[in-house]
Amino acid sequence: MTTTIKPTAAPIDTQSESPLAHLSEEQLDQLAQEFDAIRDRVMSELGERDRRYIESMIEMQRRLAVLGRALLVASRNRPAWVAGTAALSAAKILENMEIGHNVMHGQWDWMNDPRIHSSTWDWDTASTAEAWKHSHNFVHHTYTNIRGKDKDLGYEIMRIDPAQKWNPVYLAQPVYNLILAALFEWGVALHDLDFEAIRKGHKPTHQVKRELKGIAGKAKDQIVKDYIAWPLVSAVAATAIDAVVQTRRQRKAPRGILGRVKRRKRPSRFAPVVEAALTSGSKTFRQTAKANATANIVRNVWAYAIIFCGHFPDQTYTFSQKEVENESRGGWYIRQLTGSANIDGGPLFHIASGNLSYQVEHHLFPDMPSTRYAEIAPQVKDVCERYGLPYNSGPFLQQLGMVQRTILRLAFPGGKARPKPGPYRGEKVSV
Amino acid sequence: MAEQGAKPNVSKARRRALDAVRSLFTPLLPDDYLELINPLWSTQELRGRIERIVRETPDAATILIRPGYEWPGHQAGQYLRIGVIVNGVHHWRAYSLTTDPGHPEGLIGITPKLVEAGKVTPYLVHQARPGDIVRLGGVEGTFVLPDPPPEKILFISAGSGITPIMSMLRSLDRDGALEDVVHIHSSRTPDRVIFGEQLRELDARREGYKPHLRITGEAGRFAPHELDSLCPDWRERRAFVSGPGEMLDALVQHWRTDGDPELLEMERFQPVIGGDAVAGEGGSVRFLSSGVEAECDGGTPILVAGEEAGAELPFGCRMGICHTCIGRLCSGEVRDLRTGEVYGQEGEMVRTCVNAPEGDVAIAL
Prior knowledge:
The structure holds 2 protein chains of 2 kinds.
Chain A: H1 25-45, H2 48-71, H3 78-104, H4 129-142, H5 173-182, H6 184-193, H7 195-199, H8 205-251, H9 256-265, H10 271-311, H11 329-339, E1 342-344, H12 347-352, H13 359-364, H14 373-387, E2 393-395, H15 396-409, H16 426-429
Parallel strand pairs in A: 1-2
Chain B: H1 12-20, H2 30-37, E1 47-57, E2 60-67, E3 79-86, E4 89-96, E5 108-110, H3 120-127, E6 133-140, E7 153-158, H4 162-174, E8 181-187, H5 196-205, E9 209-215, H6 216-219, H7 227-230, E10 238-242, H8 245-258, E11 264-267, E12 283-287, E13 293-296, H9 302-308, E14 326-336, E15 342-343, E16 349-351, E17 355-364
Parallel strand pairs in B: 7-8, 7-10, 8-9, 10-11, 12-17
Antiparallel strand pairs in B: 1-2, 1-6, 2-5, 3-4, 3-6, 12-13, 14-15, 14-16, 14-17
């Protein structure tokens, strides 16, 4: 059964026009059934192929991490530093996005695997799994783009929608936007605490304490791992290698009487070796720590960029709390659909973004394995086309550019919603 | 959380060494990396590698497994929980161990019989290959030989009920204690006799072993009153019986009326779970996490009704053993499908795989 609905008007350009205003209740029900059917079909097909995918991602992430850490033993050497940092950054990005985010959404729970399971997974970031699952899986995915309810809309510190009331603090947002990008994982961890709930007393003190303790624990683990333990391992390894190489070199010193005389002149055979080794050791320690910090920042900036492109580009809609009163299931689907935006890209880009470049599909079906988003995208587009709904997508730099423009503009009072692209009209017409 | 394998028997030194480097790998474990080299090295759960597969009959095979760490041991007659991945999903089942504890190569074996509509036996009997990795859970069961073994033993088995008995026979044979054992085994056809050859070989080699093979397709089912002719001194023997429920029920009755029930040990290798839709009143089940509502008759486990209604629920053994499927009961009462007992208080943890709702219930799953 297919339904086609003639869009009533050309591209919608007013802020007040709701993207679902042209649909009757029956049509909304029908649309919900169509989306449910897409979900049911995929979920009933899941099997070995999907399992192999996530296992291969996990394996690749671990291999990259090992490779990165191993290369950084030679972190004094510039090319090794760059290669090691790159491998480690890639591992951290995979770990957070395609693996951590998706596993903790329960996308792989159907495998009944005790290890790859939303109830047991923890990730390499400052947020505890528990707090993040609440603020992200529950609050953000349920109240997506509802102003005043979706706390990810500007993360409570940014004015990202003109309907948000201006306040002089926002003048600084172009600056703290950059700081947030670099320290994104810490921003997310603090955001998960939900300061508004704490201020209003909605959160019991013991829970706040427990969550703070959780973040402190994760912070400690990360600092020990990236800034003490691994730098130490690479410093010790590099020192040991150096010592071996130096000693060999000395043994190769001139032989014969002349050589023996030369060697005897030296005050000690080992003093210079030890000294050189210690110098190189401490340099390696610093360089590895620097490489690890860089990898963390690269991962943070990347995650920030992908995530900000998910809901803040110009095409996306936000909703008032009044608009979503008594929302039907069809209405919920449309809010997810129009509140999110995809990023165009190739297969590698989608993996690197944790398939959050399929933000639309992810928001329609948050617990569907990410492998399947690309496959269902044409079906989702087809529904959009038939029901006269937008399907938001665009190239990475264009989307990121729009987000940055909004952040700059809305730092100042006023501003109005950007024109929306209107209903999806198939591949050829879409930009 | 989903069910996982038993904690392996790992040396303290090794555990300490792994703990010492743990902070290098947080939030993962050193194990997560070591597993890339060899999945058997996990110190988190005991795994095994399939070493050999021996076809016993057209629809039964013995899977011989080498455990990743030293086998903690079992008693002949016990069963093992084993986890396999079939079409991407972890499934757990319990099978009697058919090897005895003293296997010379240190292997353990199970002998599943194909259940056509099942998920796990088609994999084990037809698809599994040497080299495959399986997960090994706990060893359980009280259907075991006492130590020292009784002087006079009577084994009665039917079909795949022979599996725990085989382990006992092997153990007695290895210990030279196969002195006076009568074994009555039933099978529908001659080619479906699991371990047929081993039984014949044992018969030829051990004078104390006296098997009676009954082909029920030709001679009809074995009835308890036949014991007087097949094994006249059955009342004096410790009896171990294993097979389908009907046979067990008949034997229990026979021992009660005519023998000493104290001397009878039995293994119901399939617990009776549900099936009888009118046994209880049933009701609707509300799963609070997913919001799914399911109608469930009095013979259907909550787990099955929930899955059919589209809820994603944790499960393990599906027979009331492993407690993986437990959920907190928030309202209503449930009926245990094995015993018929009706119970349930708010906040109680109930196993969804062996309980049906008795009236409407809400469960935090």
